[in-house]
Structures are given as structure tokens and as C-alpha cells.
Amino acid sequence: MWLLKSSICARAQAQKQLQELVQTTKPSLPEFALLRTEVSDSLEEMHTLMDLYSSGQQEVLQLAMSHYRAGQGIATVQNVEQRYQAAQTAQIEKTHKKIAFFLRLSQLGVALVSLAALLVFFLYLRKVKADRALQLARQERLELIVQQRTASLFALASHLQDVRDQERAALAQELHDELGALITVAKLDVASLTATMRTFDDSKRKEVEDKLTHLQQILLQLFAIKRRIIDRLFPTTLASLGLKEALLLLVQQFATASGMAVHSQLDDGIVLPEKTQLMLYRIAQEALNNISKYAEATEVHVQLTRNMSTRTVSLVIEDNGKGFDVDRMPATTYGIKGMQHRAQALGATWSLSSGAQGTRISVEIGE
Q1: What is the DSSP letter of 268?
Q2: Name one Pfam family in it (predicted).
């Protein structure tokens, strides 16, 4: 009988624990309801047996205990426990699967965001590249337009330079022919008057001689002015004697007019086209003109040399004047720009340097 009491106590304890488990975990398995029913039925059967035992009905008690199915209740509990464990395992696996799914989903989201960021960055780089290409194309187009306009202006300037030189040559020729003829006629008239005045008396002849002498001086001055104007318009010695003699005469005239010490080195045997000779002469003429106006120099060197190895001709004009800043030349330095343009029009190499020791201009051109 003590075994029956112990079983009743154990089942009561099991029922209490089962109630606590249901309250704390709130399981959803239908077996928990079956388990609770089984435990309750077992407890009622045990209480019935206890009542039979207390009333002394031993035969009925023995018969009831023979039909008592304690093992079936235990089997039911074990079955429920196994199914509960299986359900817990399934729930855990389901939770793990959900976690894994959300992890994969988050990874996919990160991948999509990264892909979108890469796509945006790629589109940005593509736009930047397109903008740069467009800007480069615009810049190249502008540079091409500038080059074309520069070439057009250069060609126009060269044409105007040629036209001016031609007009100068024509004007010089006209002055030489017309004014020279008039001066010659005037000189012949003076000579005729000089011969005629011998018939005059002394007092009258003296007066006429003085006037004729003065007139001759005026004619000589006029002839010198005519020659100087013609040489400035077009150097006649260049066409008749060549570049060396024309430069030599130019240097001598410059030395006489400026009072500077001029040193010249002019090589013989230099043969250049007529246009090239004229351009080099004009460059030398303009350089000497600038020296006389601005350099405040005391010495000038003029060189026209020929390099046999490179088959080039070099014209160099340098002075010991005060010099100037080449990088800060005013826009109105038309003389220097004109010399540079003449050199470039010939396809020559132009060089200009200046400083405290003076200024040096160099032009090198192939024969």
C-alpha cells in the first residue's frame, strides 16, 4: 500500500510540474492536453483505490488494482515527451532556417546595395569621362579655330608686308627716276648759269656766284635726302651689290648718325633669294633703329655668317645697352613683332634675349 501512496504522490507532483510547464512555455502540442487528462485520470483512479483500501473492501481493491494500467500512463507520458522533444527540435530548426533566410536576405540586400552603388559610381565615371571628352573636343575645336585664324592673320600680315615692300620699291624707283631727273636738270642749269655769268661784270658776277653756290649746296642736300629716302624705302644697293654690301653701307650710315662704335663681320659668298635678302636687311635695319632709340648703347656688333656644316646663314645684331624684360614687353612693341614676323615668314629660327648686359637678336635660316 505504501507503493500506491508513493505513486499517488509522484503523479500529483508530475501534475503540478506539468501545470507549471504549461504556464511557462505555453506549448501548442495537442499531446499536452492528453497528458494532462492521463495524469488526472490516474490520480482519480489512485484516489478510488485509496478509498477502497480505507473502507476495507480488499477483494474489490485487489480486482481494481489488477486492472490498473499504470504502465499505459507512463508510456503515454514518454510518448508525449518524445514528441515534445521532436517538436522542440523542429522549432529550433525552423528558427535556424528563418535566421539563415534572413541572413541570406540581408546579404542579398547588401549585395544589391553594393551593386547599385557600383552602378551609380560607374555612371558617374562615365558621365565624367563624357564631360571630359566633350570639353576636350570643344578645346580642340577652339584651338583649331585659333590656329586657323592665326594662320589666316599670319598669311594676311605676310601679304600686307609683301605689298608694302612692293609699294616701297615702286615709290623708291619713282623717286629715283623723277626726283633724280629733276635734280640733274637743276644741276645742269646751275652749270649753264655758271658759264654764262662769266660775261657779267665783277660786282654782278660775285652776287650770282654766291647764289649759285648756295643753290648747288641745296641741290647736293636734296640729292642726299633723296638717296636716304630711297634707301629707307628700298635699298638700291641690295639689288645692285648684294646683301653684304647693303648691310655694310647700312652699318656705316648708322655709325655716322649715332656716333656709336659699330663692329661688323660680314662673310663673303652668301647667296640667298632676293626676298630672303630683303627680309634680313629689314630686320637689321629695324634692329639698328631700335638700338638708336632705346638701347642707350655705346657699342654694336653686326654679324652675317655662313655655317658650311649646317648650310645655314645667321644674322646677329647685339648691343651693350640697358636691355629690357623680354617677358614683359608692351603690346605696342611693333618693331620687335615685325622683325619676328619677317623671320617666321621666311621659316627662319628667331631668337631674342635681353638683360643688363644688352640685347641680342639672332636669325638663322637655311640656304
Answers
A1: S
A2: HisKA_3
